[in-house]
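Onboarding guide, step 5: your first structure request.
Type a short instruction followed by the sequence, for example:

Predict the 3D structure of this protein.
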Amino acid sequence: MNDPVRAQQIVRRQVRRRRRWRRLRIAVLVVLASSAVLAAAFGIDRLAIVVHKFYAEHHHSHPPATGSTNTTAASTTTRPAGSARCDSPALSAVVSDWRETSNTVLETVSLTNISLTPCSLTGYPNLGVVAQGGTPLPATNHDVAAIVAPTPGATTLPVTTVPVGTTTPSAPVTLAHGARASFQLAFANTCDHVVAPGQPTTGTPNECYSGVWLEVTPPQGTSALLVTQPLRLTYAVSGFQVGPFQAGSGLPLAGQPPLTSHTTSPTSPPATSPPTTVPPPTTSPPTSSPPTSSP
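The system replies with structure tokens like these:
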């Protein structure tokens, strides 16, 4: 090329193009390395759930707890002055108490305000369930005024569901930084046939779903909190009974102690009397008779 100015422009464009490609490759490597670190720290299943929820929240509008339905009518509650509602990023959740009795699991889930400002919870949470790999499962919610432990020998939960449209919102629970609120839930765990994710129920007796994490979404919350379960979450297709929010960690649940498969009650060693020493037998010295001599 005879024009030196034109040649310099072409060289500069090539240099700029190479720099852009180099920066793009570095950015891709950084993203891949960050994903690998996050996957190792939180587990590939939880990372998939977080990515799925982030995409759904920013690109789609959907109800808060995926795969869940609620049998109570939606109601608008008035928050106390000066206290905003508690959203999911301001809370942490954990199963603080649980019992199994008469083929039913009773749980208390405690939520702690981890933000620096007070917030309030009113009414009922919305529950969902996530299977292995992040697949959402159907989880019908039945809001009840109180969780009632089943009678011994019963195979179904007592019917205490509040009729649709008549639910009276509980009093607002205001949480300062570090304060706790809780709610109780119950579900039948008798299972003879596990329904696979995405498959319809067949009406077989004792059908159930098998999940890994419980999703808890505060009222009008923007996302769900993943709650680790003390046991594998196997629940009947009828879903969950859910109680209202209450202040503190709640009263101890009625029923049996936690499952023996996860707790071993201490056993005291059998009482033993101190060993008695038996004196050795006394032996008399041998008596020897004089030899008799024959004449």
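Each response can be followed by summary notes, for example: Residues 58-66, 72-80, 158-167, 255-295 have pLDDT under 50 and may be disordered.
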